[in-house]
Every structure is written in C-alpha cells, then in structure tokens.
Description:
The chain has 7 helices and 9 strands. It is α/β, with parallel strands linked by helices. Helix 4 (164-176) links the parallel strand 6 (128-136) and strand 7 (182-188). The longest helix has 22 residues, at 249-270. The radius of gyration is 17 Å and the shape is globular. Hypoxanthine binds at residues 115-117, 194-195, 211-213, 236-237, 239, 247, 252.
Amino acid sequence: MNQLTVSHINEAVEYIRSQTSIRPEVGLIMGSGLGVLGDHMTDVTVISYHDIPHFPISTVEGHAGELLIGSLAGRAVVLMRGRFHMYEGYGPELTAFPVRVMKALGATAVVVTNAAGGIDTDFGSGDLMLITDHINLTGRNPLIGANDNELGPRFPDMSEAYSKRLRRIAIEQAAAQGFELRTGVYAGLLGPSYETPAEIRMLRTLGADAVGMSTVAEVIAARHSGMEVLGISCISNMAAGILDQPLSHTEVMETTERVKSRFLGLVLAVIPQI
Length: 274
Ligand code: HPA
C-alpha cells in the first residue's frame, strides 16, 4: 500500500530547504558509478540521505547515498548520488519517493541514468543508449494504492514517458560531440540476480534493447507528477548469454568508469537546454 503522502514529501522538502536556498529546476538521478556528475556542481550543498525525513538509505556498493543541490552547467539542480532499488527491499513508492521530493522542490524535468545490459547485439559495452521507452516487468508500480489527486491523475498517460523534446536535444548534443548515441527500449526487472540467457531471448522478443533493475518506478512517478523525463543507459555489459562469459557487478562498475567522461560531457551539454 502507498504509505507515503504529501505530508511526508513536505517534511522532506522542508528539511532540504532549511539546508539551501537554491531552488532546483532539474532533477538528476545517477546510476551505478555515474554519481561523478556531482563533482562538477558548484555552490553545492550535500545532504546525506540519513538526514532527510522519510528518505530510505541506499545499500548498494557504488551508490553513495547523498542528495546534492547546487548549480550545474548554469542550472539549479538536485542530484541523487545513489538511488533506491526495489531489489533492496524497498517498495516501489519508496523507490520513487525522491522523485516526488524533486518535483515538490521545484524540478520540472528529471534526467534518469542507469547501467544496463545490452540486449541488442549491435550494441557494445560502453555504449550510451538514449531510452526511448520502457517495459515495466517488475510487477510493481509506485502508484498502487489510493491516488492523491494533488500529486497526479489516477491513470497517468505513459505514451510519451521519455520526452521527445529532451530526446532530440540529447541526440543533437551527442552528434555535436562526435559520437553516436544508441537508442532503444529499456526493460526494467526486479533483480537482483542477473537474467538467464533464456530471459534475455524473451526480452529481445518483447522488444527490449537493454535491461536493468532500476528506473521504471522513478519514471512512472515522474510522469504521474507531470515531469519531463530524459533517460540514458550506460551499456555496462552485454546481457546474459550474448558473450561466452559471466556477468559481474565489477564489470558494470569498470565500464561505467571507462565511459564516464563521455557520459558527463553529454549530460553537461544537455542540461542548459532542458
Ligand atoms: N542485467 C540487469 N541489470 C543490469 C545489467 C544486466 O545485464 N547490467 C547492469 N545492470
């Protein structure tokens, strides 16, 4: 059941506003190993998730657990260094709670990034993929429970979950930086075990190009609240069964480390135009 209400959101917002006078316009959720973007912020206030009322605490290696508020590429932003995954045991509404807080802080758009396994065999590890759409295969939804009309509609439209306008900007900026941004559909699964080769074949048949264990709950909440969404996956590995090698979190971290400057360049170029 949806236990988090407007009053929980407001308490988190009140605390955050007591720590900074910056009013963010853009939210950024950084996936495994991609929190480096926070190092480029100025006038930054770092708030530990521990200190924010009702915020859960991230338990995964490579996810720091800090909210950063400050300026990035000339915009006032709120950045999550570390996110909450349903495989950690959090309910979908808790996973999506920071998005609600970002919206209440004043953000009208959110950039969501993740590490994902490549299903499209034309992809290679280290590619960046612009998410054009997603398939929510988690079996969960952050909107389950009584709907609060103050937050959004009971049955939100998901036909343009990932903003066409923001996608266009990302493609232009990648081209300007001289690299091809892959595009594709992200399948969100619960995890935390990686998929079997049979599951990857199934996902390919379903129309997925990449697979991961995050993002979908956050994006559903963002769309519910009327925020524009830009999603970028770092293809950190080829999905199970494509290459004759096992998958590991070490490989995921190594690849995100390898591509982070390209990733950083892209997001920094996109932010001023959001
Ligand atoms: N599967 C699911 N999640 C992932 C993967 C993967 O192959 N790589 C990074 N996150």
